[in-house]
# Entry
Amino acid sequence: MKARVNSLVLLVAFPATLLAQVAARPITVDEAVRLARQNAPAAVQARNSVRSNAAIVRTRLGAFLPTLSFGGGAAKQNGTRYVEALDSILPNDAPWRANHSVSSNVDLFSGGRRYFDLQTARANVDAADAAETSQNFAVARDVKQQYFAVLAAREQQTAALVQLEQSQLQLRAAVARVAAGAATRSDSLRSIIQVGNARLAALTADNALASANASLSRLVGSTAVVTAVTSDTSVVATITLSENELFGLIERGPTVRQSQSQLASAQQGRRAALAPYLPTLSLGLSESFASSESGFGFLGDGRNKNLSTSLRLSFPLFNGLGREQQVLASRIAEDNADAQLRDVRLSARQQLIQQLGNFRTAEARADIQRQSVVAGEEDLRVQQERYNLGAGTLLELITSQSTLISARQALIQARLDARIAKAQIEALIGRDL
# Structure
């Protein structure tokens, strides 16, 4: 029986074969956020939205400038014709006929439509800019959460290795006591089970770390596998600003600014909808030249010049209630934007209160669990010594070990929860803490 127990010890107490890990390049959390903001599809789309709206502003400014166009052409007709009186076929050639023209048009007054369209476009740029900021912090929040998940997985891996080492020590002590006749065989078998469970925990932690690294690599847009910097594991999440300062920052947060810009755009759209009730006035100038000569006179003949000037006034009196429908739609859009802004403000305050509560609770849990881990380590050391001396039972030792494992897991989760809550708050206020 002793030989059989020793063989089990060699089989189970052998260091756990960890999962093959792909070499990962460590990056800081700031670098991870920068890469994600550069590569994430949502961030790219937000940047392009700003570019698109800026181009619309340039188009709206161009509406204040006169249009200018140039046109020209030349034609020549060749052929023959039959003259019955002469019973002959005569050539029917015509000289080149050429012309060109230059024209320009400008709206002198459009009922304020161009101005309000310009203001709407500028408000849309502000909204797109706020949306980009909001999206950048949303990307940062997601990256930080995954980065912290990598740190938690690494802590789990370290805890699992410590658990494995303690289980192996426990197994060796149990085998020695069984060999000395101071304990029953069940002690060694239970210790073997504990070592097996520790090995499974180590393998699970390895797999969790590999998966977390892969998720982080995807978020930052890296073809090579990246991981969190080891030194960041010990960093404690803290918030130095007071609650009043945080609530003040909420009013300038990216989601609130985006809704404010959308409301401003809707207000300008309502004003633009009133423009069709006013007359429009436009001025047109054109100059054309024509020629009919034997040569190719594409630019025409300056002696055959035609100048044209037009002043056009348009005042629609009735257009089938289309203007009224447009005004109503713009007012509805403004009401919706105003309600959306109010809800966004309340939602931001609600989320800040929730995340602050989560952060404070996680911070307190982490402090308590750190003390629990210290107490558990000391209790496990005492129970191990008592078991080695024959003063304690294996059940007491296993119970102490399980309590320590639970305390470590709770500490890791509390740290992760605090870090995630802080990242959520940063996304709400639009700045790093």
Remarks:
- The beta strands are 25-27, 67-75, 80-83, 88-91, 96-109, 226-228, 280-293, 301-314.
- The domain at 2-66+110-280+320-429 is CATH 1.20.1600.10 (Outer membrane efflux proteins (OEP)).
